[in-house]
Automatic annotation (TrEMBL):
Organism of derivation: Cafeteria roenbergensis
Keyword entries, A-Z: Ion channel, Ion transport, Ligand-gated ion channel, Membrane, Transmembrane, Transmembrane helix, Transport
PANTHER family according to UniProt: P2X PURINOCEPTOR, P2X RECEPTOR E
Pfam families (UniProt xref): P2X_receptor
Compartment(s) where it occurs, according to its Swiss-Prot or TrEMBL record: Endomembrane system
Official protein name in the record: Uncharacterized protein
Length: 510
């Protein structure tokens, strides 16, 4: 049993295959991997950042429209005129003969219910005001028959809801990254559902008004997304962002909504604020985008019960409100540089390089015409190093400067001569003056590669290996390669050749 075979060690071999097709394919793969990892993932997507979950707070504070933005009831199609009944058609023309109701101009203290909500707001557009009274002798509800009885019902619209202004005060925080900002420290914008930007002043200019500013005498200024300034917009801006052109459109496409308007049934808007610090390489710069989305076929109402007029407890007042429900959600993409995240990206790139190398290897070993030649270069079995343990140091030194393990195959010399000469590694023609050695010679060094056996000039033949002449010697081709049978090699005749020494070809001979 040969222990060198049993405990043979396998190690990767780096082979330089001088074939432009494989080299160009490999370079192309590496180029695309570089573009994907470095340019796209690291530079453009900032893949070196680690992300955290965004949490936040938001407060909506409404303000009633100024008087100059409110029109008389007679100019609203949904309002009764002088208490006279009339009908109107929805603004989209889909619902005819809608009944008009009385209109009352309420301030925000009467239209907003409840007064304070976290992340939400409700503004009334239609109110049913019902007065109920208990029967006599039912003050303490002593009998099952003691039930409140309706004595009067009033229904009215609240005009001017579209131009109610909203102060949107919001903050964001990423606890895992120890990162937080308020709306005053960030910039932002409002976007339509198609991604284009909404101009907050359009809510006024499309009605023929100037956009409110302190300069033109308004007590407030419409502004949004400006650093160091509060976000103040009209409610109609959120309607525009959600593609709701008017509250007098049909409320939905199913059930009762086909015969009701948004003003009558109510409307639900989901307002989303997304924060982002990936638009700039300065991690402390954050921008936010506000979007508004309509919840289809949904209404909203809130009921409020108050004591009725008088000093007794036998009456109550039920205020049934329908209107605009706004719910704010917050999220986004906030990240900070992390070495661990960068290492993950780089390790991924190494995996992609390995995949590309495997693809090129597959093409080389299975597709191209010279795949069998590539395979022989790729997989090599070494000599039995126990058999050559006595190699001299002078011979070992030759391996530093010369390629003695992988001599050029003789068949390539023949092909090269037939094609007009073989080129060297530097691209210069190599002149060959002799024929290859017999095929029986397995190789220069124990079969590690096929021997070319090429020589430039033969001086003489001498059986004494230590004769001391200037020429060097190699074993006769009839003897197996040196290292396979040292005993036989020691008694074999030698041939003196220029540029040869102890059976190893010099660089000039390959």
């Amino acid at each position: 049993m040969d222990l060198d075979n049993v405990f043979a060690y396998s190690t990767p071999r780096f082979v330089k295959i001088r074939d432009r097709r494989l080299g160009m394919l490999n370079t192309l793969f590496k180029f695309f991997i570089f573009v994907y990892v470095v340019v796209y993932n690291v530079i453009l997507l900032m893949g070196y950042k680690v992300q955290g979950d965004v949490v936040g707070t938001a407060r909506l504070q409404p303000r009633a429209p100024d008087l100059k933005y409110l029109r008389n009831s007679s100019r609203h199609r949904y309002c009764m005129i002088d208490g006279k009944n009339r009908t109107y058609t929805s603004s989209d023309g889909l619902i005819p003969d809608l009944p008009a109701f009385e209109c009352r101009y309420l301030d925000t203290f009467d239209t907003v219910y409840p007064p304070v909500e976290a992340q939400a707001l409700f503004i009334s557009t239609r109110v049913n005001d019902t007065l109920q009274q208990l029967p006599p002798n039912c003050t303490d509800l002593p009998r099952p028959s003691c039930r409140y009885e309706t004595t009067s019902v009033e229904t009215y619209f609240v005009p001017g809801t579209e131009l109610v202004t909203l102060l949107i005060d919001h903050t964001m925080s990423v606890p895992s990254l120890d990162f937080s900002k308020s709306s005053l420290d960030m910039t932002g914008r409002i976007e339509y559902t198609n991604g284009t930007e909404v101009n907050p002043c359009d809510a006024y200019t499309r009605r023929g008004y100037l956009c409110p500013t302190f300069a033109n005498g308004a007590g407030f200024e419409i502004t949004f997304g400006t650093q160091d300034a509060a976000d103040i917009i009209a409610l109609d801006t959120l309607f525009q962002a959600a593609d709701v052109r008017s509250l007098d459109e049909r409320a939905g496409n199913i059930g009762k909504f086909t015969s009701e308007t948004f003003r009558y049934a109510g409307i639900v808007l989901i307002v989303t604020v997304n924060y982002d610090n990936y638009f700039s390489y300065d991690e402390n710069k954050v921008q936010y985008i506000l979007t508004s989305k309509l919840v289809p076929d949904a209404d909203f109402k809130a009921e409020e019960i108050n004591p009725g007029p008088g000093i007794d407890e036998t009456t109550r007042r039920i205020i049934d409100r329908h209107g605009v429900r706004i719910v704010i959600t917050q999220g986004g993409k906030i990240g900070r540089f992390a070495v661990s995240q960068l290492l993950i990206v780089l390790v991924t790139s190494m995996g992609l390089l390995a995949v590309s190398s495997s693809i090129v290897d597959g093409v080389a070993m299975n597709v191209l015409k010279m795949r069998h030649i590539y395979a022989q270069y790729r997989t090599v079995t070494s000599v039995d190093f126990s058999d050559i343990a006595a190699i001299k140091q002078s011979d070992l030194n030759r391996f530093v400067a010369e390629d003695l393990v992988n001599p050029r195959p003789a068949i390539f010399e023949q092909v090269g001569q037939g094609a007009g000469g073989v080129t060297s590694g530097e691209g210069q023609p190599r002149q060959m003056t002799s024929a290859p050695a017999p095929a029986k010679q397995a190789g220069y060094y124990g079969g590690m590669g096929p021997a070319s056996g090429l020589v430039d000039e033969v001086d003489d033949v001498d059986s004494d290996e230590g004769s001391g002449t200037t020429g060097t010697s190699v074993r006769s081709p009839e003897i197996v390669a040196w290292g396979e049978n040292p005993a036989a090699a020691s008694s074999a005749p030698s041939v003196r050749m220029k540029g040869w020494k102890r059976g190893f070809p010099s660089s000039a001979a390959v």
